Amino acid sequence: MKVDGQSFRSIWVEGDGWTIxxxxxxxxxxxxxxAKLTSCEEAADAIRAMLVxxxxxxxxxxxxGVALAMRVDASDAALERAxxxxxxxxxxxxxxxxxxxxMRKTLAPLAPPDRARAAYVxxxxxxxxxxxxxxxxxxxxxGLIEAIxxxxxxxxxxxxxxxxxxxxxxxxxxxxxxxxxYLAHDGGLNVHVWxxxxxxxxxxxxxxxxxxxxxxxxxxxxxDNTGGHLMQHGMVDLVITGTDRVTANGDVCNKIGTYxxxxxxxxxxVPFYVALPSPTIDFSVFDGVRQIPIEQRGADEVxxxxxxxxxxxxxxxxxxxxxxxxxxxxFDVTPxxxxxxxxxxxxxxxxxxxxxxxxxxxxxxxx
Length: 367
Ligand code: MRU
Description:
The chain is an alpha/beta fold and 367 residues long. The chain is built from 13 helices and 18 strands. Strands 8-7-6-9-12-17-18 form a seven-stranded mixed β-sheet, sandwiched between helices. Strands 13-10-11-16 form a four-stranded mixed β-sheet, covered by helices on one side. Strands 3-4-5 form a three-stranded antiparallel β-sheet, covered by helices on one side. Helix 1 (40-48) runs parallel beside helix 3, helix 2 runs parallel beside helix 4 and helix 5 (112-148) packs across helix 6. The longest helix has 37 residues, at 112-148. Bound molecules: 5-S-methyl-1-O-phosphono-5-thio-D-ribulose.
């Protein structure tokens, strides 16, 4: 995607052939800063501290982390150390495990001297595959947006609500939930996006709004609790979110607050779609509510807000009384029955066990 006329991905290998470059997402939307990752430890820290974030990008970064580790020490022990360090970085997005398993599958059978090069090649493939997958998701999701168009009067926008950031910043490029939106916009459809701010880390207000602005897509940032009201008043045609893990039977784990949007959508007859690459499906899990580990993050994320002052200074202020306990659940699970469909690289699939297994038989059988 373009930032001020220059093409960027969210992660890449630098010109020296081994350092990993990534956009520091903690600094957006106020500053566009490139971070350089030079070790497996730095890659793990980047995931943990959310310098990079979003399920597919977490996976791509972990793959790069293994490559960085192999450059220094390509022994079996080092491979296992890298795996253990990276898998512990964040618990919920299954793409992390998927990417690490892919790296291990590629590297373990090789002799150590061949591993570093092979690791960079496989990490590069994982990134390229993610881009291709998102483009395919875009094409399949576009059909859903196009189907709404004939119901609109001239000049009326197609209103899409999204939660968190499932855009190009959360993937390697294009995004999952945003890919159909970008294609619709580029194809001349009049789309407008309701962007949930997504407290506590404000991925919607800070990242999705930033992306959409740079792409010229009409959008409005709303407080997290606004979606239900908009749906009651016919102001949302379609919801598209991303996801961090989809179970074998189609339950969807995504950023905290997604479930409430799905409930509101269900109550108001608004289609609720989830866009995902197949590495986000965890065929080993059948009950999302009980089996998916939900990350709990630090209290400060809820108790404070960070922003830019009128004078241009970045400041963090406390918004909760000193001493008030705070809980910070980062994800929730939307049961499959509330999901209208899953937009995947192989088409729009019913959020249901047989349909998912039929769409991805090679993944379903191997787990
Ligand atoms: O905590 P984050 O910012 O990593 O959470 C990101 C999300 O919940 C995204 O919606 C999800 O990873 C899908 S990204 C294509």
